[in-house]
Amino acid sequence: MSLINLSLNRLDSCKPKVCQLVCSFVLVLSSVFIFQCKEKESLVFQFCDNFNEALDCTEPKTENDLVFLDQTKFKKENPSFEDFGNFLYFTARETPGIRVEFTNPWNGVEAYEFKSNYHAYLSYGSSKERMEGNQLKPHTVVSFHYLGALLKEEFRHTGIASKPFRMETLGDIHLTYVIEIPGQKPITKERTLRLQWK
User: Fold this and answer.
1) Strands 173-180, 187-197: parallel, antiparallel or unpaired by DSSP?
2) How many C-beta atoms lie closer than 10 Å to residue 127's C-beta?
3) If phi over 0 gives left and psi between -120 and 50 gives alpha, with beta otherwise, what is residue 78?
4) Are strands 119-124 and 64-69 parallel, antiparallel or unpaired?
5) Cα gap 98→197, rounded to integer Å
6) Sheet holding 97-102, edge to edge
7) Which of the chain's ends, N or C, has fewer CB atoms near its CB within 10 Å?
8) Hey, is 1 helix, strand or coil?
9) Which residues contact 198 (CB under 8 A, 6 or more apart)?
10) Which residue, among 170, 169, 66, has the nearest Cα to 124 in the 3D structure?
11) With bands split at pLDDT 50, 70 and 90, how would you rate the model's confidence at 183?
12) How far apart, in whole angstroms, are the C-alpha atoms of residue 173 and residue 191?
């Protein structure tokens, strides 16, 4: 037998092993890709400030919004930042919120576990509060929080609550949403609001 024939026989015996290794590698990569695609498709996130009884969004929002407020309803003379927070809470009733929709009921966990472990938080500056309004259904969850309550807390933290309020000094309001959903990594989303008088 020639040296060339021996080399070819060795190469032929290695081919199935190499082919098997390459096929295994491709299969693993395909599985990871499919899993990641399914995970991404398992929920839909939306900024939304108002909902109907069926939890459909009736006031969709974006990552950057301009919010117009009716100045004629803010009737305080020489208002403070605290007064403005009260106006947002009791009169304007601005409620930044979110809506999350799931492909699988309760995001693939038991209803009791989902309801016990679902949490949503809203942060502004150094203030972080648990969102007050939560409504849960098998395929949809909505949460909202009163902007006035969160701003008042931050005004107290920064020591400006009793200082005279002027809209110009407020600037952009950078909000951070953190949503803890059972069976899912926590979702963190950023949103910027600018408040302006009509």
Assistant:
1) antiparallel
2) 17
3) left
4) unpaired
5) 24
6) 43-47, 97-102, 140-144, 133-137
7) N
8) coil
9) 68, 69, 70, 71
10) 170
11) confident
12) 8
Which amino acid type is present at position 67? V
Least confident of 27-36, 53-62, 119-128, 132-141: 27-36
- Is 127 in contact with 154 (CB distance < 8 Å)? yes
> What was the pLDDT predicted at 115?
94
Query: What is d(CA 176, CA 160) in angstroms, rounded to the nearest whole number?
Result: 21
Residues 158-179 have pLDDT tens digits of 999 999 999 999 999 999 999 9
Residues in the chain: 198
What is the pLDDT at residue 5?
52
Confidence of residue 15 (pLDDT cuts 50, 70, 90): low
Contact 79, 165 (CB under 8 A): yes
Q: Each residue of 45-81: pLDDT tens digit?
A: 999 999 999 999 999 999 999 999 999 999 999 999 9
How far is it, in rounded angstroms, from Cα 62 to Cα 177? 13
* Two tokens, residue 163: 């200082």
